[in-house]
Amino acid sequence: YHGFGIQRPHQQQQPVPNSDAVLNCPACMTTLCLDCQRHESYKTQYRAMFVMNCSVNKEEVLRYKIPENRKKRRGPKKMRSSHEDAAEPAEAQAEELYHPVMCTECSTEVAVYDKDEVFHFFNVLASHS
């Protein structure tokens, strides 16, 4: 209902965000995010900073070990000093920490939350614009 007979001052319309998709919960269809970025290689995954109808479980920690080939390269191996090579095994055990994110309406796990305060959605219905 827009109140057709009522005169209102002309309001400035806000532009729609430049989002890759609108994300919804796959179980209950609740809207979770209006402004997100699609992952470059995993086309069914998205990242966002501003979400709605989501709750982060800070009590639970998910650990993801970083694969060898994903680590930063420091240059050719023959140019490294011996003390850099000694520090590498500690880096080989590097892992990323996440917290699970649930839909507040039905408690379906829809994303993970990282230390940089970014939501990584993987279990969502996306409506592409």
CATH topology type of the domain at 17-64 and 95-128: Metal Binding Protein, Guanine Nucleotide Exchange Factor, Chain A
User: What is the oligomeric state here?
Assistant: single chain
Number of helices: 1
Beta-strand content estimate: 25-35%
**Span between termini:** 26 Å
Q: What's the CATH class of the domain at 17-64 and 95-128, please?
A: Mainly Beta
> How many beta-strand elements?
10
* Rg, alpha carbons: 21 Å
Region (Disordered): 65-92
Pfam families: Eapp_C (PF10238)
Protein name: E2F-associated phosphoprotein-like protein
Biased composition (Basic residues): 70-80
Q: Which key terms come to mind for this protein?
A:
mainly beta; seven-stranded antiparallel sheet; Metal Binding Protein, Guanine Nucleotide Exchange Factor, Chain A; 1 helix; 129 residues; 9% helix; three-stranded antiparallel sheet
